[in-house]
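[job 4471] stage=fold_predict status=RUNNING
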Amino acid sequence: MPNRWETFRTAEFIRLPVEALLGAAVLTALPRRPRLVVAVLFGLILGVLTVLNLMDIGFYQYLGRGFNIILDWPLLTDAQSYLGDTLGKGTAQLAAVGVIVLVLAILAVMVLAAIRVGNLVGRNPGHSTRALLVLSAFWMVCASLNLQNQGVPLSAEHTVTMLKYRAERVRDAIRDEAAFGKTARADTFGGTPPSQLVPDLRGKDMVFTFIESYGRSAIEDPVEAPGVDATLDARTKALARAGFHAKSGWLTSATYGGSSWLGHSTTMSGLWINNQNRYRTVTAGDGEHLTLTKAFQKTGAFDTVGIMPGMQKGWPEAKWYGLDKVYNAFQLGYQGPKFSWSTMPDQYALEQFQQRVHSKKPADGKSRMSFLILTSSHQPWAPIPKMVPWEDLGEGKIFNAIHDEGKKPGDIITNSPKSQAEYGKSIQYSVTALTEWLERYGKDNTVLVFLGDHQPIARVSGNHANRDVPISIVAKDPKVLDKIADWNWTDGLRPAHDAPVWKMSAFRDKFLTAYGSTPHPTKG
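[job 4471] inference complete, writing C-alpha cells
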C-alpha cells in the first residue's frame, strides 16, 4: 500500500511483492505449529506497517511529511483536540473510538490472512513450492527488465523499503537529538552585552505578530491570490495614508500545514526547529539560546508581553521566549462564540491588546516589545469572522450573529475548492484586522513585524507546495526601513515573486545585525 494519497492507483496494488514470495517460502518449509507462530508474526508486522502507511497519508496531507514513530505520538492528542474544537467533542470521541477499532481490525485481519495463507501452503507443499518457483522467476524477469504497468514496476519490494526507511528515521531522530543539543548551545549573539543588543531600535514600540497559516499560496495560488493580493495592495495604500510604509520578503518555514509553534520558535530563536524533539530540547534550555524576545528583554530597556488567544493551557515556554507577561485565551475577557478552533476573532484579540497593553506606558520609562499570535486563519476556515466597528467590539457578543450565519466546518473540511476559497477569505480578514489596528493605534515609533508561521495544509496549498511564508516590516520612521535596504525586499505588504527567500532560521541574526547588534558568539 502506498503511504501517500496522491500515489493511490490500481497499478500499485497489482504488483508482485518479493516479501510475499519470501514469506510464503518460509511458511511452506515450516512444520504446523512453528508455521502458525511465524504466520501470526508476519501478520502483525504487515498490520503495523499498514497502520503506519495510513498515518503517513494523514501526516502528508496535514503536515507535509511522514509520521515519525519516535517524535509524533503527542500530536495525536492535538489532532483529537482539533476535531473536538472543529466538529464537537462527541464527534472527536467517536473518531477516536473509530481509529482504535480500525487499528485492531487491520491487525486482526492481517493476522488471520497470514494464518490462512500459511495453512494453504502447508497443506500443499509440493504445489506451493512449484508455484513459488514460477512466481520467483517471473519476479526476477520483471525486476531485471524493469517491466512496468502504467509507469509502476511489476516487481515490488515496498515492504522491505519501508522497513529500512522507518529504521533510518528512528536512527536519525536519536542522532539528531544529541547533535541539536550542542547546536542549540552555540549562539552568535549569546555573549552580546545588553548595551550592544538592538541599539537602533531603542525607544521603539515593537510588535512581532504571526498570522496563522499565512503562506505563499495565499499570495500566488490562482484561487486565493486575487482576493488576498487585492487586500494587501489596498492595505498598503491605507497604511501609507496613515504614514506607514512596508518592505516584504519570503521565509522558508520549518513546518508545514500545522505545528505552528515550530515556526514561531524557529523565527524567534534562529535555530532550525523542525520537529517536536528539537522544540522540547531548546525550550527546556531556560533561555540558554537568545530569542528575539529575550534579546529585547535582556537590554533592560523593554518590557516584553505576549498575547496568545489560542493558548488554553499552561505555557512554560514563556520563560524561554523571555516574556515578562502573557495573556492567554482566558485572560482577554472574550464572551462571544468560538470560530471553530480559534477561540476569538483576531480583531477582538487586537483590541484587547490595545486596551490591556499597548495603550499603557511601561514602568520605569521603558519601551515595549509585544509578541502576538493571531488565530482566525486556522483551519478549517469555517466559520470566518468579519470586521465590525472597533468601538462596537465590547466583550465579543457582537460576533454571535456572524458566527451563526457563517459556513459550517463539516461543509468545508473535506472539500478542497471550498477550503481554498474560505482560506483566502480568512487571510484577508486577519491581514485587514492587523493593519487596521496599526492604522488606528500605531504611533510614530511603532514598528510592526508580521509573518506567516507555515503554509496551509495540502488540501489548500497542493501536494507539492513549497514551505515559503511572507514576512513584512512596517514602520513610520524611514530609518527603520533604511536599515534593511540591502535586503532587497519588496516595497509594500505583498512580496514580489522573485523577492529574496531565506530560511526562517536566518531571520533572527539578520534582524539583530541590521539594527546594530554586535555578535559575541558562545560555543556549544
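[job 4471] summary: The chain has two domains: 5-176, 204-514.
[job 4471] exit 0
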